[in-house]
Design a protein that fits this description.
two-stranded antiparallel ribbon, mainly alpha, 10 helices
């Protein structure tokens, strides 16, 4: 018990330390491509995204979770850079564009995060159904954290809330929690934002912790909830872009 607590604390501390170091380094070399205007009209940077992705990946170590974090973060970063000015939101909008022959950055993100989740799930579990359910949980959690990232601190607080129960089962959840905690004050202070990079990376890390700590029933319950949340989020996006 003491050993697990020590490993959990170490993972949290490493994630927080690496995240702060990367975040500080990026802020010393600002780039206009990584700045955005938030809902209140303030200019904020997106450096919390790559910083938390690196911090969570390093603290997670090698293995399926780290793979999922890095791929999800890379797909999110691609969308952060390429989707600037693109007002299309939700799965349906990007799938409609794909049907018309356009591969949007959102489509790349959707398919890339989904594939990474399935690969990580296949490595985490032994039985075929469990592999698929674990993949849905990992990818679904990544998309869910991005879905709630609509206000300062919302995604980071969601990661802390979702990750906390996982600390009772293992140390994997400590990595995204440490990374999220490291930038929470800056996020709430509207100096930075996680963007798709951080939201997807941290979500994939939390999803990996959930997948690793649950059996088939737990995986099925989480997968069903995440699918319902994704469907609801897509419905809200569709309504938001519909003419009134």
């Amino acid at each position: 018990m003491i050993g697990r607590l020590a490993r959990t604390a170490a993972s949290f501390g490493v994630a927080a330390g690496v995240t702060r170091a990367v975040y500080a380094g990026l802020r010393r070399r600002p780039s206009a491509g990584w700045q955005r205007t938030n809902y209140a009209g303030r200019t904020v940077d997106l450096y919390a995204g790559p910083a938390t992705a690196v911090g969570a990946a390093v603290a997670t170590g090698s293995g399926p979770a780290a793979f999922a974090v890095l791929v999800a973060g890379a797909c999110g970063a691609y969308d952060d850079v390429r989707a600037r000015g693109d007002e299309r939101r939700g799965f349906r909008a990007h799938l409609e564009a794909l049907r018309d022959g356009e591969v949007t950055s959102g489509t790349v993100k959707l398919l890339g995060v989904g594939a990474a989740g399935l690969v990580a799930g296949a490595l985490l579990k032994e039985r075929p159904l469990d592999k698929v359910l674990a993949g849905v949980v990992i990818a679904g959690t990544a998309h869910f954290v991005n879905l709630v990232d609509v206000a300062p601190g919302r995604a980071a607080l969601t990661v802390l809330g979702l990750g906390a129960p996982g600390l009772l089962r293992g140390t994997v959840a400590a990595a995204p929690m440490g990374a999220a905690a490291a930038v929470l004050a800056d996020d709430l202070g509207e100096r930075t934002m996680l963007g798709d990079t951080g939201a997807h990376a941290l979500g994939a890390a939390v999803g990996s912790a959930i997948a690793a700590g649950n059996g088939r029933l737990g995986l099925a319950v989480h997968a069903a909830g995440l699918i319902a949340a994704a469907a609801y989020g897509s419905r809200v996006s569709d309504l938001a872009r519909s003419p009134v």
